[in-house]
Amino acid sequence: MNEVLQNIKARRSVRAYTDRQVSAQDLDLILEAAAYAPNGMHYETWHFTAIQDAAILTELNKVIKGAFAKSDEPRLRERGQSETYCCYYHAPTLVIVSNEPTQWWASMDCACALENIFLAARSLGIGSCWINQLGQTCDDPEVRALLTRLGVPQNHKVYGCAALGYESANTSQKEKWIKEGTITIVR
Ligand SMILES: Cc1cc2nc3c(=O)[nH]c(=O)nc-3n(C[C@H](O)[C@H](O)[C@H](O)COP(=O)(O)O)c2cc1C
Fold first, then answer.
1. Of the residues 13, 117, 158, which should be mutated to test ligand 1's pocket, given the most ligand atoms within 8 Å of the CB?
2. Domain ranges of the chain
3. Is the CB of 130 under 6 A from ligand 1?
4. Measured distance CA(59)–CA(186) in Å, rounded
5. What gap in Å lies between CA 136 and CA 72, rounded to an integer?
6. C or N terminus of the chain, fewer CB within 10 Å?
7. Are 30 and 91 in contact (CB under 8 A)?
8. Would the CB of 82 count as within 6 Å of ligand 1?
C-alpha cells in the first residue's frame, strides 16, 4: 500500500491530547493543505481561523456552553451546565472552518478542507478530531461576538472545526471496518 493510502487508513479521531503545541511550521503546512482542497466553482469563499491561545479556547468553550444552556434540547442544556464539558477535548490548537452560506455547497467545501487538515496532520504525527459544536452555536450573540473578535468573517457560518494536537499516550483507538453493503461496484 502506498503512503497516501496508509495515511488515510491510519487516521482516527483523537479525543485526548497532551499539552504539547503544534509548531508554527506544521500549522502552516496543515493550513496550506486545507486551502488546496477542492471547492465548488473554485470560489475559495472559505476562511480558516486557527487558535493556539489556551485562554481564548477556554473562553470559546464557555460561550458555546452558554449557547447550549439556552437550548430546548435537554441533552444540550446538560452540556451547557456541565463543569467539565470541553467540546475541543483540551486540544492545544483549534482550526475554525467557515464559509459564506450563499452557495448550497458551502458545507461541502469545508468538509473537503477538513479532511485535508486531518490527513495532513496525521502525516505529520499530529492527532485531530472534527469538532461540530460551533455549527450549532455560531449565530448565538455571545458566540458570534467572540468569533468576530477572532477574525471569523461576519457573513460566514461555521461548518466545522479541527482539534489538533499530540495524542495522549493512554488512549486506545477502536478497530475500524467498513460496514457491509457500503460499497457497490457495477462493471
Ligand atoms: C460531520 C462530522 C461531525 C463530527 N462531529 C464530531 C464532534 O463534534 N465531536 C467528536 O468527538 N467527533 C466528531 N466527529 C468524528 C466522528 O465521530 C468520527 O469520525 C467517527 O466516529 C469515525 O471515527 P474515526 O474518525 O476515528 O474514523 C464528527 C465527524 C464528522 C464527519
1. 13
2. 10-165
3. yes
4. 51
5. 13
6. C
7. no
8. no
| 171 torsion bin: left (phi>0), alpha (psi -120 to 50), beta (else) | beta
For the CA atoms of the chain, what is the radius of gyration? 17
Whole-number Å distance between alpha carbons of 122 and 112: 16
- Residue 112, sorted as left (phi over 0), alpha (psi -120 to 50) or beta, turns out to be alpha
- Tell me the pLDDT of the chain (187 aa) as tens digits: 999 999 999 999 999 999 999 999 999 999 999 999 999 999 999 999 999 999 999 999 999 999 999 999 999 999 999 999 999 999 999 999 999 999 999 999 999 999 999 999 999 999 999 999 999 999 999 999 999 999 999 999 999 999 999 999 877 777 899 999 999 999 9
- Looking at domain 10-165, its CATH class is alpha beta
Does ligand 1 come within 6 angstroms of the Cβ of 155? Answer: no
Beta strands in 22-156 (DSSP E): 47-51, 93-99, 127-131
Q: Whose CA is nearest to atom 12 of ligand 1?
A: 130
3-state secondary structure 110-137: HHHHHHHHHHHHHHCCCEEEEECHHHHH
Q: Taking the alpha carbons of 138, 139, 145, 148 in that order, is the dihedral positive or negative?
A: positive
